[in-house]
Amino acid sequence: MYQKIFPSPLIYSLALSSMGGSPIGCHKVGLILRAMGFENSTRIYLAAGELFGGDRFMKPFRALFPHLANHNTMGLSADELAEGTRGMLGSAVDYMVCLLSDIFLPTYDGPSNFANNVMGHRLYYGFRTIIQPDRKALAPIFIKREKGQTADFEESVRRVMYNREFGGPHKRIPPESFYVNSWPECFCQMNPKNTADKCPPENVVENLNSRLQSEEGMRSSNMTDG
């Protein structure tokens, strides 16, 4: 099942975003990913500030996935990050990495503008893979684990996680925001019932230039005739 969902044998850039007030703890994120089949060679980019309580809280996650990065490790100095448009340079780097990464995993499903915009943008960029943990369904599984009942932990996590859309096209269901999922209103269609919904041809620029030249020729002709 892992190979079907993620055909690439090496997922080299997994972007994790922990934005908001009550994200899933980093260690739980690590356990979810391991249960889904991610190996410790997976490279993970953490799009977050100081939200995990320092290195003490990151150690369990780093033990599972040692190849971690954030905008402070992307070759930008602390001064550049601080001076870049009032400190927004780091956020811009976070956004672009999350947008273009192989996989995006938001650890908070509340009203986070950052995560919502990234998810909506990724859908519009070709339904890029998104892993959204179902916190409500996962909660009893982790409670059982904390009580020492670990026998079927990974199987239970997989059963919950593989019951998700993974960023594929799906009808928007409230309270899902339009900005998170604008399908199908803002997506063209290959074989639409309504011609207005048809995707533009691949040579759309050439067609527009040709139409523009044709219209200019008609205007010139009309001016000459006048």
TrEMBL record:
One of its GO terms (cellular component) is endosome. This is O-fucosyltransferase family protein. It is found in: Membrane. Pathway: Glycan metabolism. InterPro entries: GDP-Fuc_O-FucTrfase. Its main location: membrane. Keywords: Carbohydrate metabolism, Fucose metabolism, Glycoprotein, Glycosyltransferase, Membrane, Signal-anchor, Transferase, Transmembrane, Transmembrane helix. It is a single-pass type II membrane protein. GO terms for molecular function: glycosyltransferase activity. Belongs to the glycosyltransferase GT106 family. One of its GO terms (biological process) is fucose metabolic process. It comes from the Eukaryota.
